[in-house]
């Protein structure tokens, strides 16, 4: 058993099993993410050498380089990274909890709920002069409220002597369709310039990222990733199935609600700033499971890193491939994600 | 099942038919320019070029007929799909067929600058057909075959994929967004009669075929093994059903855009009323579907007068509660 190292704290209330092999893989992924981060900051309309980018990070470079890297590119790269991490972590939690490999925040409607709230916010609080009547800082709050409201609605509608994963997914799909109808309604009722803005937003794009947003999404996501990590052993137990989980003394229903709340908070943060980037919550956890197995303590960081990596790459492609036209990152994640989803459905054949 | 005897079922169908006709009449008469039945009658018998007569002939009549045809088609599609997939939640919108047709139309408008009605219809069929076959094939893969949960998930994922591509294309050229947005929401407003006439042959074939295949659907509903044992040619019947679904769903979406939830709600209501015998169920569901869409469309004119709500939004609001109800009840596992 030398592959594992145990870790306990607070009288065993918090415990982890550290997998050394997985630790190495996480390390490699971390380095890979850092590399993509730096290279991505150098690519675009004005190409900058990665070494110069590093130089800019430490305070050097010309004014022009500093402007491009620090003001234009860095915010969106950071938001892409963080949003990807949050979505992937939330997807991993939901899959463990629902025990269905095809569950993800976009399929059970949380993303659409946050989306409807944001579109509503944009169309209700904008005046004739194309500007918002309230501070944009309230936007994440709206997204959060929408996500949490839909999360709780789906949860309570799925409740019938407890929540079964199948009902949760089905009701999520229904509510998600309703939220899409809401979005369309709000887009049509609101001014048309908001419609195009809202449309880009629902596809998922980080093109409007600012440092202000970075400072809002960063602590929020970090906090909930930490909480998710602390609850990783509950996810592991949930994955054993309801009877076994209850048998080893886990409060199954209470924890299901708790895990749903944590993943909702993660999704809300991501959706508020990056929009409805789809399929990350589905894909990243699967790739991570292939790499490190399904123990959530190692799965969470791995899947978060992969999610961040994927969204960063999608955004990089979106802004460089058809330049000067920007393609929302969500289009690329869907383009990779849907075939992957099909592959997952096919693969169940072999089991 | 409320209507048990054949005579009461016939009575039920006649009542539904009358209600259907009344709704068409109401759809012609009511709206922003309120007219009377008398004027409507005059508009067809002694047309005098007055504003009201013009509105009735060019705006209201096409709209009423389109709502009736689309509603009926969607409801029948829902019945067929639910029996075929043994999934109480199957319907063109949940399984991604509407989204597929939507993507095809947006692609055609953007890249080929399609304007002709005929091309529009064919492209919509193509999209619907592609999506239907893709979802069906994908969810049939795997050793446990086509399970209700799998087809729902596959449909939802494909719908999400098509939707995000549609959004992506629309964001790339904002000019088209405005004109396509209303179509994408699903609406029967402002559609010309020619559009309906272009797809009417396909819809007619679909309706007749759906009613003719009803006895076979009864056998299919007993499950694949029993149906095979009773001598049903499973493969052929399933292919025919898929073709009918594509004709009806593709035709509806070409005219009215993706209108959701009628295909889910109506089959269930119809089954509650008239039972599961498809020979009664399919025509009855068709009539109820027409009534629902006509009524929703009349409502759409009054909610935020003088502007209009896309009727697809209204059906979504009516439909979601029933979807949730069915999802809670339908899957016991």
From TrEMBL, chain A:
Pfam families: FecCD (PF01032). GO terms for molecular function: transmembrane transporter activity. GO terms for biological process: siderophore-iron import into cell. InterPro entries: ABC_BtuC-like, ABC_transptr_permease_BtuC. Gene3D superfamilies: ABC transporter involved in vitamin B12 uptake, BtuC. Keywords: Cell membrane, Membrane, Transmembrane, Transmembrane helix, Transport. CDD domains: TM_ABC_iron-siderophores_like. One of its GO terms (cellular component) is plasma membrane. It is found in: Cell membrane. The chain crosses the membrane at residues 26-57, 77-95, 107-126, 138-158, 170-193, 257-284, 296-317, 329-346. Its main location: membrane. It is a multi-pass membrane protein. Belongs to the binding-protein-dependent transport system permease family. FecCD subfamily. This is Iron ABC transporter permease. It comes from Peribacillus asahii.
From TrEMBL, chain B:
It comes from the Bacteria. InterPro entries: ABC_BtuC-like, ABC_transptr_permease_BtuC. GO terms for molecular function: transmembrane transporter activity. The chain crosses the membrane at residues 12-32, 64-82, 94-112, 119-139, 151-172, 193-215, 235-268, 280-303, 309-327. Its main location: membrane. Keywords: Cell membrane, Membrane, Transmembrane, Transmembrane helix, Transport. It holds the Pfam family FecCD. SUPFAM superfamilies: ABC transporter involved in vitamin B12 uptake, BtuC. It is found in: Cell membrane. GO terms for biological process: siderophore-iron import into cell. It is a multi-pass membrane protein. One of its GO terms (cellular component) is plasma membrane. Belongs to the binding-protein-dependent transport system permease family. FecCD subfamily. PANTHER family: FERRIC ENTEROBACTIN TRANSPORT SYSTEM PERMEASE PROTEIN (PTHR30472), SIDEROPHORE TRANSPORT SYSTEM PERMEASE PROTEIN YFIZ-RELATED (PTHR30472:SF65). This is Iron ABC transporter permease. It comes from Peribacillus asahii.
